[in-house]
């Protein structure tokens, strides 16, 4: 159950970060609202996951999967330049 909570928190944080990009600097209403909704959900679930994990371990998983997830989302949905081997290696 603790892993499920952690991954739900990570997914919600990824959704919030994606909505932040879609809000175009908080100039679009619905993506701006969803940014804060998803971040609130993500952090709330993360707090519950911290009851079962040590902070250092949980945050390392949270941060690393968040970075990887946002990078993939950015490359797939928001970058108009083609993916090359250098980008993949640096990723």
From TrEMBL:
Superkingdom classification of source = Archaea
Q: Which residues form the signal peptide?
A: none
Q: Localized where?
A: Cell membrane
Q: Per UniProt, what is one Pfam family of this protein?
A: Multi_Drug_Res
One MF term in GO for this entry?
transmembrane transporter activity
**What is the membrane topology here?**
Multi-pass membrane protein
For this record, the Gene Ontology CC terms, alphabetical, are: plasma membrane
User: Where does the protein principally reside?
Assistant: membrane
Q: Which residues cross the membrane?
A: 32-50, 57-78
Q: Which UniProt keywords apply?
A: Cell membrane, Membrane, Transmembrane, Transmembrane helix, Transport
Q: Which PANTHER family does the record cross-reference, listed alphabetically?
A: MULTIDRUG TRANSPORTER EMRE, SMR FAMILY PROTON-DEPENDENT DRUG EFFLUX TRANSPORTER SUGE
The protein in question is named Small multidrug resistance pump
Per the UniProt record, the source organism is: Candidatus Argoarchaeum ethanivorans
Supply the source organism's classification. Archaea, Methanobacteriati, Methanobacteriota, Stenosarchaea group, Methanomicrobia
């Amino acid at each position: 159950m603790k892993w499920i909570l952690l991954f739900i928190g990570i997914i919600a944080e990824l959704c919030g970060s994606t909505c932040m990009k879609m809000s175009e600097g908080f100039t679009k209403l619905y993506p701006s609202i969803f940014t804060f909704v998803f971040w609130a959900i993500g952090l709330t679930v993360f707090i519950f996951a911290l009851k079962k994990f040590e902070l250092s371990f949980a945050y390392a998983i949270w941060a690393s999967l968040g970075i990887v997830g946002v990078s993939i989302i950015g490359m797939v949905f928001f970058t108009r330049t083609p993916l090359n081997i250098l980008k993949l290696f640096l990723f």
